């Protein structure tokens, strides 16, 4: 069985949805399961609904209206029959969003986030499933929340592998199936999410549980590149990458592959292909066992909007295990993701990601116990397999706040 994952860019409008059909017709869709993300920037639009719910409820109708208008435009262009059931099915999903916002009593932002934002995937797969049937491609629409079970750590859940494996065994492999990325459900059947960009992880979870032959992620790039073309002018396609190397790149923040995606695939040696939905017959990149990296060129990764903190003790005593363990306990408490650490005898520097917004409260806690200097809105650059030329290309013109290098990797925090 094959798992195909289509991201938001690959289903962003009616032409993109038609292209999904083109891809399936070119590469085949027998014994295949499709994992599909929300259309275009719908996740961002859903986040605006959540923010309006907590900050200014009178904005909710206009935010939802934008989502309805966007998707209705796609539906209108895909379905000639304007009485098609898809209009009713779409309306039901929108009514569910509005209904939740009325009856919800929970003040927990992360809980509300998961219940609302997940509708992006439910809507996209409902539309695409209907369109595939419209053009003669029979398929089963699956609610992934019935299969992937998690804990209730909303917005960043942990998969219950035993229950998920048991549920996934019930999927009918004889037909084309389509389901949502990014989503799961907890013991109370509330929706949970696997973290932003978690659709790749969904594909890997299902591949692991189904003992799939391969996973293919369809992107708007030729495959895995040695740098993000949004930030670097000259990029090269990586033809083959080992699991180990890909995990390293993902760990440092390479955006093509979700950090959690590779681990279940590696355990069962399921190859991962990253290919272009614009040129589906091109080979793209293959991630597999023992392939190293080919060609072996410097790989550039950048993480924007980071925070660099330098902490030192108030009495100039050493920064040792008890101090550092206390700091990391606070990082965990405020959901601060650590991307780089460096310490000396009396100071401890750390570059972190404040994606859950806990920085201000964290700083108040830290300043009560340590001397703290911090820089916001810095960038963390990582070069794997660096050479002198690659390093100089980043150092020139940048104010370097921190540098750390090992045998294969160098990292720079720049302002």
UniProtKB/TrEMBL annotation:
Designated name of the protein: Aspartokinase
Annotated pathway: Amino-acid biosynthesis; L-lysine biosynthesis via DAP pathway; (S)-tetrahydrodipicolinate from L-aspartate: step 1/4; Amino-acid biosynthesis; L-threonine biosynthesis; L-threonine from L-aspartate: step 1/5; Amino-acid biosynthesis; L-methionine biosynthesis via de novo pathway; L-homoserine from L-aspartate: step 1/3
Listed EC numbers: 2.7.2.4
Organism expressing this protein natively: Maribacter cobaltidurans
Any Gene Ontology biological process: threonine biosynthetic process
Keywords recorded for this protein, A-Z: Amino-acid biosynthesis, ATP-binding, Kinase, Nucleotide-binding, Transferase
InterPro entries registered for this protein in UniProt: AceGlu_kinase-like_sf (IPR036393), ACT-like_dom_sf (IPR045865), Asp/Glu/Uridylate_kinase (IPR001048), Asp_kin_monofn (IPR005260), Asp_kinase (IPR001341), AsparK_Bifunc_asparK/hSer_DH (IPR042199)
A cellular component annotation (GO) from this entry: cytosol
Catalytic activity annotation: L-aspartate + ATP = 4-phospho-L-aspartate + ADP
Single GO term (MF): aspartate kinase activity
Tagged with keyword Membrane: no
Pfam families membership: AA_kinase
Record family assignment: Belongs to the aspartokinase family.
